[in-house]
Amino acid sequence: MTSEAKLSKDDITVVFILGGPGSGKGTQCAKLVEDFGFVHLSAGDLLREEQQRPGSEVGEMIQNYIKEGKIVPMEVTIGLLEKAMIDNDSNRFLIDGFPRKVDQAMAFEKEIVESSLIIYLECSEEVMQMRLLKRGETSGRIDDNVETIKKRFKTFIESSYPVVEYFRKFDKVHTIPCEDSIDEVYAKVKPIITELFKQKEQK
Ligand code: C5P
Ligand code: MG
């Protein structure tokens, strides 16, 4: 990893947005970008871009993992995130859909930068499935279908929810129920980030 040289860790704010598939991570991030000038990095989007990049050595592997709702080995994902952080040259990053596994959380915070806080969007599987199937009508995503959605839920429960519990130990998690409308959810998300930057300014 080359992070030490390229990213000055001291003044970087990293916020992780976690939640099951279809919980609205990307949607809430778009609103936070408008209000707080974050660079938004979606781990899933970065993986899909790499999968489609001509000549990618890991493209086929990524496709297989996504199709099966499994988690791509963290070397790949952390490498893509680190590159995107260096390329974007910002000190505010909103990272969605990552970490998806406790080992990813520990490796990222050790090698790249520590997160300031975690927003966990809590949602029932019924609502998430409904949203994903709706999105699947137009998304063209190979994983927005009933069969893969079931696998994604299983992966979330087994591997990704433990990340939320891991961060709870450090008192970093803000849990937001997210079955309401986009604006109602955002009304609960926004004050958390406002407070974060207020506290940072006071330091
Ligand atoms: O977050 P999103 O729903 O876009 O992720 C789609 C898929 O990308 C996941 O189901 C998983 O296969 C893969 N992914 C991953 N590791 C991450 C984020 C996404 O393997 N940290
Ligand atoms: Mg997304």
UniProtKB/TrEMBL annotation:
Residues the record lists as binding ATP: G22, S23, G24, K25, G26, T27, R135, D180
GO CC terms in record: cytoplasm; nucleus
CDD domains for this protein: ADK
Binding of a ribonucleoside 5'-phosphate, residues: R48, K70, I71, V72, G97, F98, P99, R100, Q104, R141, R152
Reaction it catalyzes: UMP + ATP = UDP + ADP
EC number: 2.7.4.14
Any Gene Ontology biological process: 'de novo' pyrimidine nucleobase biosynthetic process
Subunit structure of this chain's protein: Monomer.
Job of this protein: Catalyzes the phosphorylation of pyrimidine nucleoside monophosphates at the expense of ATP. Plays an important role in de novo pyrimidine nucleotide biosynthesis. Has preference for UMP and dUMP as phosphate acceptors, but can also use CMP, dCMP and AMP.
Family: Belongs to the adenylate kinase family. UMP-CMP kinase subfamily.
Protein name: Uridylate kinase
